[in-house]
């Protein structure tokens, strides 16, 4: 021992020996990590539930690797093998993810009580709230109480007053389209960034009002914060919870290193604007104009109530939540609504550019609806072909291969005799159900008229926002997305304006819609995909 210490302090280290020790330490780390992954995967595995490629040590490690870099394909393989049952995918240092394929099992999950299988722990895991957003919500309280209330707020503000949001959403869309830089009547745009920018601007009106929806600094911060949050949470998800308090901050910085999606700096900008907007709310409340006051009554006001204002008044006037909880919930809502809607619009725009045979019919439908009914929900509802086209795009290009996520709060007993352990993540392989011949005729063929034909045949669940066992993009049951009506109206208005003003062409006919890598069950857009916009002769 004394000899070894003397060697270390002598300064005469042999570089080859040092390199050998570093390599040995690295190999030990790899072996310990691999052993821990195999051990925990087996410990948390549910009895009677098969893994996709088996439960041998190498198979488990292989599944961990595939799930991280291309989860949708692993889920496809599992669905093809176990379409009449269920299967499990091991996850890094946490309970596994059980995928229910059989329709009867999916229905049992839909009907299960939230006290047995709840989506809230899954959202908490997905967003890594305690690590990515420390200090906004009470510690140790589980899923934030304010987040449990927000879906009802959205139904009370957005859904019931959707007609009132449409004119300003429409103005925001027009404003964003005016920023398209045309040269000789045409230009090339990045497909995802274009869709993302439109949704950020128009969605921000519903959240924070007209002024901020036109503030470029605020809008850029929203975009950067959401993408930074996605990058950070996905990397954080791979780290054991016991280590996050020690290396979580470093991991958060590392996740967005070299990108413009700096979550911390963009969050500072958002907080500055939130605080300024809150000061304006204080003045309005002092003057008697509030959500619950006579002047601000949502049933009589000409303008719809901003979601931020509703949440803010609930914290200040009724004392239900702290201001920090309101800010935390606003950050979560931005993530939930804006990114998912932007992804849906991105896929639809990419498909539209490659399918010119639909343009004339879609254009005629939009022009008729808007000329007869104006910019309204009635006009959006009149666009039945556009609704079908968008739904077909969502069917083939969902943001994730799994939906209807739940986490078992207590043991979940299924009708096939299997009992899932508490902590197990349960989901439905919606991305592959929607491509299955059991659900659709010619499922791999794009048919923009598919849901028009279903409606003509008497189907009651053919519209974009309808929920059904073979279309689960928005989830299922009482926990389905409450903002899907606004997302539908927004996408239709964007489409209507685009096809009336421009011809939309692909820069490449063969470029994939998803990136070369996915992350777990989530698809990653092809950030390099571009479109050509050419102003129509009638618009010049």
Automatic annotation (TrEMBL):
GO terms for molecular function: heme binding; iron ion binding; monooxygenase activity; oxidoreductase activity, acting on paired donors, with incorporation or reduction of molecular oxygen. It is found in: Membrane. Keywords: Heme, Iron, Membrane, Metal-binding, Monooxygenase, Oxidoreductase, Transmembrane, Transmembrane helix. Signal peptide: none annotated. Its cofactor is heme. This is Cytochrome P450. It holds the Pfam family p450. It comes from Penicillium angulare. The keyword Membrane applies. One of its GO terms (biological process) is mycotoxin biosynthetic process. The chain crosses the membrane at residues 20-39. The lineage of its organism: Eukaryota, Fungi, Dikarya, Ascomycota, Pezizomycotina. Its main location: membrane. Coiled coil: none annotated. InterPro entries: Cyt_P450, Cyt_P450_CS, Cyt_P450_E_grp-IV, Cyt_P450_sf. One of its GO terms (cellular component) is membrane. Belongs to the cytochrome P450 family. Heme binds at residue 481.
